[in-house]
Design goal:
By secondary structure, the protein is of the alpha/beta class. It folds into 2 domains: about 280 residues, 3-Layer(aba) Sandwich (Rossmann fold); about 60 residues, Phenylalanyl-tRNA Synthetase, Chain B, domain 1 (2-Layer Sandwich), CATH 3.30.56.70. The chain is about 40% helix and about 25% strand. The chain is built from 14 helices and 15 strands. The chain has a 7-stranded mixed sheet, sandwiched between helices. A 3-stranded antiparallel sheet has the order 11-10-12. It has a 3-stranded antiparallel sheet with strand order 13-15-14. Helix 1 packs parallel to helix 2 and helix 4 runs parallel beside helix 5. The longest helix has 18 residues. The termini are far apart. Bound molecules: S-adenosylmethionine. S-adenosylmethionine binds next to helix 2.
C-alpha cells in the first residue's frame, strides 16, 4: 500500500493517499484517487440512501479508495455494499477502510465494472468516473435491478455546459446551449441522454435527485421497466430555443424552431424522496447539506430559468435582491430560486411579466 494518511469524513475513518486532491472535480493522478471536496457529494449519497429505506444491495463501481463505499456501509443502516475498482491498488485502501471501521457489510471487488455488472444485479449502481459516465451507462443499465437506482456523476462540464459543442454532440448526441443558464441545460442534457439510452432497452426513468455543484453534475434516477414507461419517459425529453437579443426562451417536444437538445424537460427531483431526506448531525458538511436540501425542496420543476445579470444588462438596471425579485414575481405567478446558481431563478411566467417584475423589484430596491 502506498504512503497514506487516515482522515475522518463524517463518522467514518478513511485511509487515503498522503497526496490527494482537495479541490476541483479531480483528475487522474499517479496514486489511487481521493478528493476531499467530494465529501459533500458522499454526504448526499448517505442522506439519499437513508431515505430510500433498508435492505439495499449497492455497487460502488468506481470505488478508488472506497471512501464512498466505506461511508455507505458505515453510515446507512441495513445495507450491503460492493466496492469495485479496476485498479488493483485500490483494493489495499478498501481493505484498510473495512478494517478501520470494523465493517462486515462491505466486499472488495477488483474487476472492470462491465464484468461485475454482467454477473450481478444491484438495487443501487454508482458510477463516479473521471469525466463522463456515458461510456459506462450500458453496463450500469444492465446491472441495475428492477426499480433500482442509477447514481451518476459527470465532471465533463465543458461539453455539457456548451463550451465544447463538438464533444457534447458526440458523447451526448445533443446540441448544448451557450446561454446564461448553461449548467441548468447541462444537467438536463445529461438526464435526457440517460432517458434516451434507457428507452432503447424498453426502460423508463424517474429522476429522484439531480444537481450541479462544485464543477460536476450528479443525478440519481429510478429505472423503471416496460415499453409504456419508456414512452412516458421519452415524452419528457424535448428541445429548447433561446434568443440572445430578445431573451426569449421556450421549450418544445420537437426540434422544429428549437435547435438545442434533446434535453430532459421533466422534474429534476422526486418531492417525496426530498421530504424523507434528513440531514443528520454526523454528516461531514451538515450545514451545506441543509442549505442544498432546502433549495432542492423549494425550486420549481420548470427548465425555464433566468440569470439576473442577463436581465440587468438587457433592462440596464442594477440587480434587485433575490428576495425582492421573487416576491415581485410571485405576485404574478409561481417563481423560485434555483440550486444551480445563487443568481438564477425559475419561472414559467411570460417574458414581459418577468421583465415587469424585475423592474418593479429593482425600483423598490433602489428607493
Ligand atoms: C473519480 S475516481 C472514483 C472516486 C471515488 N468514487 C471516490 O468517491 O473517492 C474513478 C475511478 O474509476 C476507476 N475506473 C476507471 N475505469 C474503470 C472500469 N472500467 N471499471 C472499474 N473501475 C474503473 C479508476 O481506477 C478510478 O479509481
Amino acid at each position: 500500500m502506498t504512503s497514506h494518511v487516515v482522515i475522518k469524513e463524517g463518522p467514518t475513518h478513511l485511509a487515503v493517499p498522503s497526496l490527494h486532491s482537495s479541490g476541483g472535480p479531480g483528475t487522474k493522478g499517479l496514486d489511487v484517487f481521493y478528493n476531499r471536496q467530494m465529501a459533500f457529494n458522499r454526504d448526499v449519497s448517505i442522506m439519499f440512501l437513508r431515505a430510500l429505506g433498508s435492505g439495499l444491495k449497492v455497487a460502488d463501481c468506481m470505488a478508488a479508495t472506497g471512501s464512498r463505499s466505506a461511508r455507505m456501509a458505515n453510515e446507512v443502516p441495513d445495507i450491503e455494499v460492493v466496492a469495485n475498482d479496476i485498479d488493483p491498488r485500490s483494493g489495499d485502501f478498501i481493505r484498510k477502510n473495512i478494517e478501520l471501521n470494523g465493517l462486515d457489510n462491505l466486499r472488495v471487488n477488483n474487476q472492470d465494472l462491465a464484468c461485475l455488472l454482467s454477473e450481478e444485479r444491484f438495487d443501487y449502481v454508482d458510477i463516479d468516473p473521471f469525466g463522463s459516465p456515458i461510456p459506462y451507462l450500458h453496463s450500469a443499465i444492465k446491472g441495475v435491478s428492477r426499480n433500482g437506482i442509477l447514481a451518476l456523476t459527470a465532471t465533463d462540464t465543458a461539453p455539457l455546459a456548451g463550451a465544447r459543442r463538438d464533444k457534447c454532440e458526440r458523447r451526448y448526441l445533443a446540441r448544448p446551449l451557450k446561454w446564461p443558464c448553461h449548467h441548468e441545460s447541462g444537467l438536463r442534457i445529461l438526464l435526457g441522454t440517460v432517458a434516451r439510452d434507457l428507452a432503447r432497452f424498453d426502460k423508463g426513468m424517474e429522476p429522484l435527485l439531480s444537481f450541479y455543484c462544485d464543477h460536476y453534475f450528479r443525478v440519481y434516477v429510478r429505472v423503471t421497466k416496460g415499453a409504456e414507461r419508456a414512452d412516458r419517459t421519452l415524452a419528457q425529453v424535448g428541445h429548447m430555443a433561446y434568443d440572445r437579443q430578445s431573451l426569449v426562451r421556450s421549450v418544445s417536444p420537437d426540434a422544429q424552431g428549437h435547435p438545442y437538445g434533446p434535453l430532459w424537460l421533466g422534474p429534476l427531483h422526486d418531492r417525496g424522496l426530498l421530504a424523507d431526506m434528513e440531514v443528520g448531525p454526523s454528516l461531514q458538511e451538515a450545514g451545506r447539506c441543509s442549505k442544498m436540501l432546502a433549495l432542492w425542496r423549494e425550486e420549481l420543476d420548470t427548465p425555464l430559468c433566468y440569470e439576473v445579470a442577463e436581465i440587468s444588462s438587457y433592462l440596464k438596471v442594477s440587480p434587485p435582491r433575490m428576495e425582492k425579485l421573487l416576491h415581485s414575481l410571485s405576485r404574478r405567478g409561481p417563481a423560485s430560486r434555483s440550486h444551480v446558481s445563487p443568481t438564477c431563478f425559475r419561472t414559467d411566467l411570460p417574458l414581459e411579466e418577468v421583465l415587469d417584475s424585475y423592474l418593479e423589484a429593482a425600483q423598490i430596491d433602489n428607493l
